[in-house]
């Protein structure tokens, strides 16, 4: 059971990345490769606020959410809106990811930094719970709960609010949505802002599990993309399920095959799933008239 808890908590991190991918992809049709770096930036801000400045927890959450949200808005304004074509926008998001990686290394260095779990002194890091016969850290339980609650909240909001329904309309047909009076440009900006705020807000929760390190963004970007492809592009619940599946696969592969075969096992599972369901487990297959 300890192995399962570890896999679910790690999968929750991938699920949070997949959620950010889905928010932007649904609203704009753009895949934001820099989202994992935004989450990484949130962990660095959490380290600074909790371990260096020793701010109150709420202040650190507000700092990380606000600062990363501003970066995400700047990304949309200068790296997305000014570029035409999905392919070109993919390139610019990769450029933003590289810029955030480089800036993080210049400011905080390349060594992993320990992010305390809601405490500048780190007492909570040594606490171990026993749940259903398995050992689990409090931060791991919080990660799992946060990923599930955010997914449920986003699904409900997208289906029961005017803004959420407008975003879904944009996902179906942006031109038709614009003709119906939907402010497509403003909602796209809002999607980037929301994804950035969420990436920053979960930084203080993700950091204690992953550490704050400049290579975190690249690792999370790859696994988050695999989780999204497994669950299905545009499916919020599918991204979360895909994240948990990848986390469990990674833990069991490392346990029984060794760390050398972790990525091979993950991509093997992804290949098998996509061969059976090319749109992912919960993705919708689209028909096109030729």
Mind explaining what this structure looks like?
- The protein is mainly α.
- It has one domain.
- The chain contains twelve helices and two strands.
- It has helices at residues 2-28, 35-52, 57-80, 86-108, 138-160, 162-172, 174-179, 184-201, 203-210, 216-231, 236-256, 262-276; strands spanning 129-131, 134-136.
- The protein has a two-stranded antiparallel sheet.
- Strand 1 (129-131) and strand 2 form a beta hairpin.
- Helix 1 packs across helix 10 (216-231).
- The radius of gyration is 19 Å and the shape is globular.
- Residues 120-124 have low confidence and may be disordered.
| Average of pLDDT | 86
Structural class, judged by helices and strands? mainly alpha
Number of domains: 1
How would the global form be characterised? Answer: globular
What is the alpha-carbon Rg in Å? 19 Å
The order of strands across the largest sheet is 1-2
Distance between the termini: 51 Å
> How much strand content do the residues show?
under 5%
Ranges where pLDDT stays below 50 over 5 or more residues in a row are 120-124
Sheet with the most strands? 2 strands, antiparallel
Count the DSSP helices.
12
How many β-strand stretches? 2
Helix content: over 70%
Order of helices and strands: HHHHEEHHHHHHHH
How would you describe this structure in keywords?
mainly alpha
In short:
The protein is mostly helical and 290 residues long. It has helices at residues 2-28, 35-52, 57-80, 86-108, 138-160, 162-172, 174-179, 184-201, 203-210, 216-231, 236-256, 262-276; strands at residues 129-131, 134-136.
